[in-house]
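WARN retry 2 of 3 for item q-0093 after timeout on previous attempt; input resubmitted unchanged.
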Amino acid sequence: MRINRFIASCGVCSRRDADKLIEENRVKINDNPAQKSDKVDNEDSVLVDGKRINLEESVYLAFNKPAGYLTALEDSRSATIMDLIDVPERVFPLGRLDLNSEGLLILTNDGDMFNRLMHPRSEVWKKYYVTLRDSIDLSQVEKMKKGVFINSLNYKTKPCNIEVISDKELIIQISEGKKRQIRRMLESVGNRVKYLKRLSVGEIELGNLPKGEIRYLTSREISYLKSL
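OK item q-0093 returned
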């Protein structure tokens, strides 16, 4: 495995940033300064800033996040998703759900995948079930489908897919993940989210996974994530 990929897979940083660490002579392989062309495996001693790094066996989890938990590894002021996730590996969420939202989160210790899928250029469609404070009309739905300008972010959202279930229920699919995006999209057309639940991330679905529980992804689901 190329040294930059090894560093990224250990969760240290992205491959590009790993190359910078190598250029700055902050990486050693078996006590020798690393070169960008070097290849390593877990038997080699790889030090970054004097600290040895190792590859863990990669794990990939689906988690049904309940409301009331932050999507964070730790927080001194609030309960986090890690209070509910009991696995030996140190896993990281691929994306986030805000405190009051529920539904599917993907977690992994695969640093290379984390850096790739969290890059702004990565576009994975995510599906949400949303209930609204007020009735919505078709003109508001069409505005959101085409993209709406969010003043607080100084940003226009990309086109999205919306299925109207009732005047206060929607299924919304978006390919981006700005902070509190769906809530802000509804606010931009004069409405508010009452309840929000993520149903799927790409081809990976929440299904009937109980709230607050995890499951390991299937080999097919893992292959799908690696193909993105």
